[in-house]
């Protein structure tokens, strides 16, 4: 049985990575300026490089693909951890208000620095994940306080509180964007919808340290996350320091989500859909679940971004809108299925 599940996990990873590479290839070669595989190889290997190919590949398409993969990985894994901690398969960093808190902090940052700081300067780009983290932590703290009852964190209360606080923070974000000048309002509105069209290598370097630091924390506690699927009394009887582990895992997840939101805006539903798809593929053991969540999340974002930039060419949809078109029906279906399971 173990060898069968291991083979299934390895096969899933190989197929998933293959699909990501295939989608990346399609995204890299197709667009307003089509490029052949030969041109890509020659450009990457620096064989008689041409300025046009360098510009399209290194400045526009490749950073966008890398950002899509990193954001999808981060949101997918964070979603699995949040669902495990809350013992609720409908939980998601976006639904719980973490995205909204990070997004509101980012919009406030953009509002107070509009016209004072260039959007692609190193100072602003490196500050963005920190600002997002502050907002995400603030939202999580509010949700945590309102969800705490009788000395315990109630998962249903957490979900409802998160939805309410997310709605309030989104309203505040909209109010602040309306106070911006026309140029900054347009940028903030597109960013809040979830967009990676402005991706660049600076953005990648700004979130990479957060992912490299925090993702291993989640993976190293895979067994703890498995234990959290049990009832809380049973978890305590096994000697697990529940509050300490919850706080550490939640902080790591918030840091990952905040870093992703700082460069991609309010992309939702990845943290909801990825764990569900991954569980169907490899089961509930987090040692296998987390890597597959990362692969599924990356694939969802990169495919959605390709659709967003090509469906209405030359116009372009925010990637968050495309994901929402898929995610909302999926969320409704999950609600319907859970209702009939009870």
TrEMBL record:
Record's signal peptide: none
Membrane topology, record value: Multi-pass membrane protein
Pfam hit, one: FecCD
Keywords in alphabetical order: Cell membrane, Membrane, Transmembrane, Transmembrane helix, Transport
Keyword Transport: yes
Transmembrane residue ranges: 6-28, 65-82, 94-113, 125-146, 158-178, 199-219, 247-269, 289-311, 317-336
Cellular localization per UniProt: Cell membrane
Domain of life: Bacteria
Family: Belongs to the binding-protein-dependent transport system permease family. FecCD subfamily.
Protein name (record): Iron ABC transporter permease
């Amino acid at each position: 049985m173990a060898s069968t599940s291991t083979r299934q996990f390895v096969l899933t990873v190989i197929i998933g990575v293959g699909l990501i590479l295939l989608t990346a290839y399609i995204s890299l070669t197709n667009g307003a300026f089509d490029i052949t595989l030969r041109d890509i190889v020659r450009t990457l290997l620096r064989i008689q490089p041409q300025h046009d190919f360098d510009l399209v590949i290194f400045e526009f398409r490749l950073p966008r693909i890398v950002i899509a993969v990193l954001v999808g990985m981060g949101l997918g894994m964070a979603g699995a951890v949040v669902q495990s901690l809350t013992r609720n398969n409908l939980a998601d960093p976006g639904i719980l208000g973490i995205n909204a808190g990070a997004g509101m902090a980012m919009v406030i940052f953009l509002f107070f620095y509009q016209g004072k700081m260039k959007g692609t300067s190193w100072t602003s780009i490196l500050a963005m994940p920190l600002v997002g983290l502050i907002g995400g932590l603030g939202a999580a703290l509010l949700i945590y306080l309102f969800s705490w009852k009788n000395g315990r964190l109630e998962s249903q209360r957490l979900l409802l509180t998160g939805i309410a606080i997310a709605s309030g923070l989104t309203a505040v974000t909209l109010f602040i964007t309306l106070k911006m000048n026309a140029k900054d309002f347009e940028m903030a509105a597109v960013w809040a919808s979830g967009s990676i069209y402005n991706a660049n290598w600076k953005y990648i370097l700004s979130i990479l340290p957060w992912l490299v630091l925090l993702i291993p924390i989640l993976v190293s506690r895979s067994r703890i996350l498995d234990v959290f699927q049990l009832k809380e009394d049973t978890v305590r009887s096994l000697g697990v320091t529940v509050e300490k582990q919850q706080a550490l895992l939640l902080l790591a997840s918030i840091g990952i989500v905040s870093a992703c939101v700082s460069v991609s805006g309010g992309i939702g539903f990845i943290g909801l859909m990825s764990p569900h798809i991954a569980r169907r593929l490899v089961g509930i053991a987090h040692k296998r679940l987390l890597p597959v969540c990362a692969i599924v999340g990356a694939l969802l974002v990169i495919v959605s971004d390709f659709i967003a930039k090509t469906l209405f060419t030359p116009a372009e949809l925010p990637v968050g809108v495309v994901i929402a078109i898929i995610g909302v029906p999926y969320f409704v279906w999950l609600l319907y299925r859970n209702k009939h399971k009870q």
